[in-house]
Amino acid sequence: MDVTQGTGNGRNTPEPVMHAAPNPLVAVDRDGVIVDLNRPARSLLPATPGMPLDDVAPAWLARAHRQIDHSRTAVNGWIGGRLFQAQPTPWEAGAPDLGAQRGSELTLCWLLDVTDCHRQAQDLAAERERTAFLADASSRLLASPDPRGCMESIARLAVRQLAEAAIVIGPPSGRGHAVAYCGPDGRPVYRTMAISPADAPGLDEAKRNSSTPILWTDPSAAPEWIVRESLPEFGSMGVVPLPGQGAATGALMLLRRRGREEFSAEDATLTRLFVERAGAAMSAAFLQEEQSSIAEALKSELMPLRIGELEGVELSVRHRPVQHGERLAGDFYDIYPASDPDGESTVVLGDVCGRGLEAAVLTAKVRNTLRALLPLTRDHHRTLQTLNRTLLRPESTRFVTLLLASIRRDGAQVHLKVTSAGHTTPLIVRADGSVEPVATRGSLIGVLDDISSVTATVTLEPADTCLLYTDGIAEATGGARQEVFGSERLRTELRRCGGMPPEALVEHAHALISELAGPVPRDDRTAIAISAPRRFHLSAVGGQGPGRYTA
Question: Are the beta carbons of 83 and 115 closer than 8 angstroms?
Fold first, then answer.
């Protein structure tokens, strides 16, 4: 069957193929003249055979025909609001009586409507971009735990995706409102400003109601601190709350240039998802700052009194918390020098159950109570019983272990009264290297209505030391088999330490534990060494001079 047909211009064309095609199809000769076009093409292009393609077709389609010799790649372009893909193809399927040279003079331009595919691809790309933006925003906001860094990140991210400028307003403080601003340059500015939310349209409502949708207003009504003279003219200003824990933690203001005033449905959805993440991150940052402030206030109260000279007693403390530099630890200690030369000094070493703010509050309560009970510390059991009744709470399961030691110097000797309330047993390291446990025991504080306790009396001769320590030392684990260091091993090691100064002894104890369990402790490690001096003070001879020390 002959698939070509003569036309009025004398050229052969693939007429049956053309008019059977459902898509627009245009046949063009090598000179760019339209030889034929089917009905769909006639409804798309104002053309008839014999007209130059350049006169009736968009420029992109004419270029596609001219490039047929160089590339057969499909080219896209718009015709009448629809996107078409042009696929120019040399006509090489002619009848046998058509020579190859004559048949190749024609080019068939197939036009495929790809508008819907293009829009779907655009929607998919936009959705991928929005998803990537939200994922990146979550990552960056989580990496900004402090309020300033978090607010600056929110402003910078908003400018990157939602607007030409953004302002983040934080919750009020005594100095005003924290404000982070970011303009088109992408560089945020943070400061504390004395502003009134009522001065900015929509801001007061957004800060009062975390569920308020984005409010669009005219930026011309905004105060100067929002719309700055150095910025381009804006066409719209949107205000949206940053939701926190049940209330707005702040607000986000978006400034958009003229011509970009309207938000699409996709923009609104993206903004809602973004502010949910931003509000949660900002709420967490301010909460963490508040907790840090509380922790700092507690730290100042929880730090032990400055270790001073106890009357004729050598004393050294070595404290290593779980986290290096962390002062809000589970272990605590206090040293109270005697109020008069013949009185008793008091040393307290304790370990509260748990960590963090709740444990810190319990520690503060224990220390404040003991400080108030100092006049009663001659009677250890009475002191501990009063402390126990103070701490008992039906709803609480927290408790504390405690060592209470009273110290009195008598010539060359030091007399100790030591009482344990569920704490690790202290050890006496004699000058000759012998080690003996202190015979004291007792109940935990804060658990039982009535406690039991046994107070031990110990006398230290010159160079003897009493070592008080917490379970972070005795129960430290390490090595390939995660073996426990243990009190027995500690006693064995301390037999080599007879006559050591207290500073060297506590350092040696910590070094032993670090050698086994590593330098970073898993539990707080505290050791207090109380020693009878190796030399004692003589009175001034004849009442003259300050006196001297002798062995």
Answer: yes
- Calculate the dihedral angle through the C-alpha atoms of 262, 266, 268, 274, rounding to the nearest 10 degrees: -130
Could you tell me which of 127, 153, 129, 128 has the C-alpha nearest to residue 141?
153
User: What is the number of residues in the chain?
Assistant: 551
Q: Encode pLDDT of 297-333 as tens digits.
A: 666 655 555 555 577 799 999 888 765 445 455 788 9
Identify the three-state secondary structure at position 192. strand
One-letter amino acid of 87: Q
Tokens 């993440």 locate to 277
* Residue 323 pLDDT: 58
Strand partners, 522: none
Q: Which two tokens stand for residue 111?
A: 């036009």
Q: Which residue has the tokens 């100067």?
A: 224
Q: How far is CA 96 from CA 1, 2, 11, 16, 103, in A?
A: 10, 8, 16, 16, 10
Burial of 29 (0-12, 13-18, 19+ CB in 10 A): middle
Report which DSSP code applies to 304: P
Tell me the CA distances in angstroms from 287 to 112, 471, 531, one per residue in order: 58, 33, 46
* Segment 391-417, tens digit of pLDDT: 988 777 789 999 999 999 998 999 999
In which residue are the tokens 């790309």 written?
Answer: 125
pTM over 0.90: no
